[in-house]
Specification:
mainly alpha
């Protein structure tokens, strides 16, 4: 069996499919978040609470419980929107671990971000899901008892940075740019169409 060339379109499609699979619940949380806020954006008073909104969706789609929808919403709200992570940064981390971090109360965005970074480091070190989950449970229990106190100016600045990262008018983040665009084969755009000769493309005199 020959290995797929990294420049092969099939391998790019495969990478996209795997990414879609791993990030499916994060994408669901993103869709729920923007749908909910778009519906009531122009209303002075929300006529439907988030809980009622998720319940209505779960009734329309019985295979998904309100708890499942709520968990997807919270992970996106608190880790992507609140902490400024890219979805691609979170998709390879087990969703249950992300949910534990997102659903732990009284944690600030800086603390949540540090927990996610520690989870990734333990994954890179080869720790199993059971080991990471056990360590995370102990850490979260300690944080519930005594959450870290951070200066308000630090929290405000961190929140602004996360908001900037969620501003889709910004093409790139200077602090944490997105992954590089996959390289396509050199002949990908060669469709047999003659090239356009521009007026300034004159041949040099002999």
């Amino acid at each position: 069996m020959k290995f797929l060339n990294l420049l092969n379109l099939q391998s790019i499609d495969l990478m996209e499919s795997i990414s879609n699979l791993l990030g499916a619940r994060l994408q669901l949380g993103q869709t729920l978040h923007f749908t909910y806020h778009t519906i009531f954006k122009k209303q002075k008073k929300k006529v439907l609470s988030l809980s009622q909104f998720l319940l209505a969706i779960s009734l329309a789609h019985p295979r998904l419980s309100r708890r499942t929808l709520q968990r997807a919403y919270r992970v996106f709200e608190r880790l992507v929107r609140g902490c400024g992570f890219w979805i691609t940064e979170l998709e390879e981390i087990d969703f249950v671990l992300l949910a534990k971090v997102a659903e732990c109360r009284n944690l600030k965005s800086l603390t949540r971000r540090e927990l996610v970074v520690q989870i990734r480091k333990r994954m890179d070190a080869g720790d199993s899901y059971k080991q990471i989950s056990k360590k995370l449970d102990k850490t979260l229990a300690a944080l519930r008892e005594s959450p870290p106190r951070l200066p308000k100016v630090v929290l405000d600045t961190d929140h602004r940075l996360a908001d900037m990262k969620m501003d889709f008018r910004l093409v790139n983040s200077a602090k944490d740019p997105p992954p590089a665009t996959p390289q396509l084969p050199a002949d990908y755009f060669d469709l047999g169409i003659p090239g356009v000769v521009l007026p300034w493309d004159k041949p040099e005199p002999e």
